[in-house]
Design goal:
The protein has 282 residues and is an alpha+beta fold. It has helices at 3-9, 19-30, 46-52, 58-66, 159-166, 186-194, 231-238, 269-278, and strands at 43-45, 70-72, 75-76, 83-85, 91-93, 96-97, 106-111, 140-141, 150-156, 174-181, 207-213, 217-224, 243-251, 254-255, 264-266. The protein folds into two domains: 3-97, RNA-binding S4 domain (Structural Genomics Hypothetical 15.5 Kd Protein In mrcA-pckA Intergenic Region, Chain A); 106-278, 2-Layer Sandwich (Pseudouridine synthase). The strands form three sheets. Strands 7, 8, 9, 10, 11, 12, 13, 14 and 15 form a nine-stranded mixed β-sheet that branches. The chain has a four-stranded antiparallel β-sheet with strand order 3-2-5-6. The chain has a two-stranded antiparallel sheet with strand order 1-4. 31% of the residues are buried.
Length: 282
């Protein structure tokens, strides 16, 4: 859609009656991320930008943007998914320039089973935020952990580090201990280690070994460097195994050990440096 089409559509604003400012808004609404001009960029949607800068969740940001409280480069934008560049655009909320905090917050939480990795849940189910202390800024989960899974969830306001830990490009390992019905044999382990089709996606090779066997169940430890939706369950399901329990025990150098379900702690300086090193972030 060209700029005139965007202006005519409006996107919640009467751009044609706004004159020059309407043209500037239309330019913002119609632009696309660019990476080929030789300059560094950090493109995100406007709602994501407010979350990355520790202001509020993306869901809260959508309503805030629609209410007209946010300006980009001096003009009010009411579209939450307009693209902004954190390195070059000026974003203001209620007149205050927003920037990522220099001193970030890093927490580790043992997410209990049947808890959502989200700020709100439409069904009223508990979320990870029910277990966190009161903080002076917004923090968000580094990746997600399924509602019916448990274990280590990292939360931070450091957007760049979070993105790199979640991205398969940086190969930050995540380790899970999984209880499955029946017995897992070497053939299944080799499939996990080789990479496999889980339905429209070929996984990267995983590390996998048996922890212990019981009469009718088996515990397997699996380490992956990506995090597709329900990936561990889908991988084992493709091999014919039902997952009975799934616990994430490690992300990079950070371990779950020492936390009980519902407990949290701040990361140590050594853990923070280790995470940054693993994510190739100086």
């Amino acid at each position: 859609m060209d700029r005139r089409g965007v202006a005519a559509k409006g996107e919640g604003q009467d751009l044609e009656s706004m004159g020059k400012e309407g043209e500037r808004v239309a330019d913002l609404l119609s632009r696309k991320p660019t990476f080929d001009d030789g300059q560094p960029h950090a493109w995100v949607t406007l709602a994501r930008a407010l979350s990355k800068m520790g202001v509020m969740s993306r869901r809260q940001a959508m309503g805030t943007i629609w209410s007209g409280r946010v300006k980009v480069n001096g003009v009010t934008v009411k579209k939450h998914n307009v693209w902004v560049d954190l390195l070059h655009d000026e974003i203001r909320l209620d007149g205050r320039v927003l920037r990522e905090p220099r001193d970030h917050v890093y927490l580790a939480l043992y997410k209990p089973v049947n808890v959502m990795c989200a700020r709100f849940d439409r069904l009223g189910r508990p979320t990870v935020y029910d277990y966190l202390p009161k903080l002076d800024r917004w923090v968000f989960p580094v990746g997600r952990l399924d509602y019916d899974s448990e274990g280590l969830v990292l939360l931070t306001d450091h957007g760049q580090l979070s993105d790199r830990i979640a991205s398969p490009e940086y190969h930050v390992p995540k380790t899970y201990r999984v209880k499955v019905a029946g017995q897992v044999f070497e053939e299944t382990l080799e499939k996990l280690r080789s990479g496999m089709d889980i339905g429209g996606y070929i996984t990267l090779p995983a590390k996998a070994h048996i922890l212990r066997r019981n009469k009718s169940t088996c515990w397997v430890e699996i380490t992956i460097c990506e995090g597709k939706n329900r990936q561990i369950r889908r991988m084992l399901g493709r091999c014919g195994h039902q997952v009975l329990r799934l616990v994430r025990v490690r992300v990079g150098p950070v371990r779950l050990a020492g936390l009980k379900p519902g407990q949290w702690r701040y990361l140590t300086e050594k853990e923070i440096l280790g995470l940054k090193r693993a994510a190739r972030l100086s």
